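User: quick one, sequence for these tokens?
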């Protein structure tokens, strides 16, 4: 892993992408980040995501110049946001935030255990690629959460490997049991909150990056009907 990290550092030059790291006394020339416009503060990165989401909602997406972008990204990458969302085909973060290749999106089961298994990817994004924002994104109408809620309520066992998905979502479902409102919505949001907490408290790298304000970690929910993303954690 360390060899891979060192290789990534030298291959991309992103260790020098952050202006805070600049040192004029160094003999090595500064290497410009592949997409200078992606070097931004955590708050600016979140504002950019939300602006993109508003364009997406209105159906006025930008025209993305994929030809120029591909060329710029051959030598490296410096995404301004890392997103973990459900594998549901209706989410598609690059569309939902009208982002060209500026976000690194991971799709997985929307469960806390999946986030824990993917900690290394988020560490890579924050420490090596200097990504200033991480977003855990749930969505309404999530079939996995709905299955977990009904399976636990009915004490039914799903076929194949699906019980592992139920087990992974069980902490969130149990945490909101008995609360007023829609159980699936409550469990979906709780699962996002658990994911955000897991990332913020992941030692040693992510927790330190949060304390140093090098990264902001937030949670949101995507609405299938109008495409709106609400940040609530
Ligand atoms: Zn889902």
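Assistant:
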């Amino acid at each position: 892993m360390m060899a891979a990290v060192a290789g990534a550092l030298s291959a991309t030059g992103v260790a020098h992408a952050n202006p805070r790291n600049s040192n004029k006394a160094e003999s090595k020339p500064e290497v410009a980040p592949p997409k200078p416009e992606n070097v931004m503060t955590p708050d600016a990165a979140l504002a950019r995501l939300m602006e993109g989401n508003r364009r997406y909602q209105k159906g006025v997406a930008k025209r993305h110049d994929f030809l120029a972008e591909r060329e710029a990204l051959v030598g490296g990458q410096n995404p301004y946001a890392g997103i973990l969302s459900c594998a549901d085909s209706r989410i598609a973060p690059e569309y939902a935030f009208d982002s060209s290749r500026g976000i690194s999106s991971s799709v997985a089961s929307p469960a806390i255990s999946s986030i824990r298994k993917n900690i290394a990817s988020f560490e890579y994004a924050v420490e090596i690629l200097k990504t200033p924002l991480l977003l855990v994104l749930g969505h309404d109408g999530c079939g996995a959460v709905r299955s977990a809620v009904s399976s636990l309520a009915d004490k039914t066992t799903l076929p194949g490997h699906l019980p592992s998905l139920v087990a992974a979502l069980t902490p969130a479902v149990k945490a909101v049991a008995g609360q007023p409102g829609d159980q699936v919505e409550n469990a979906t949001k709780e699962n996002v909150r658990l994911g955000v907490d897991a990332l913020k408290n992941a030692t040693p790298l992510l927790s330190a990056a949060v304390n140093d304000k090098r990264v902001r970690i937030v949670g949101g929910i995507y609405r299938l009907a109008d495409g709106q993303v609400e940040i609530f954690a």
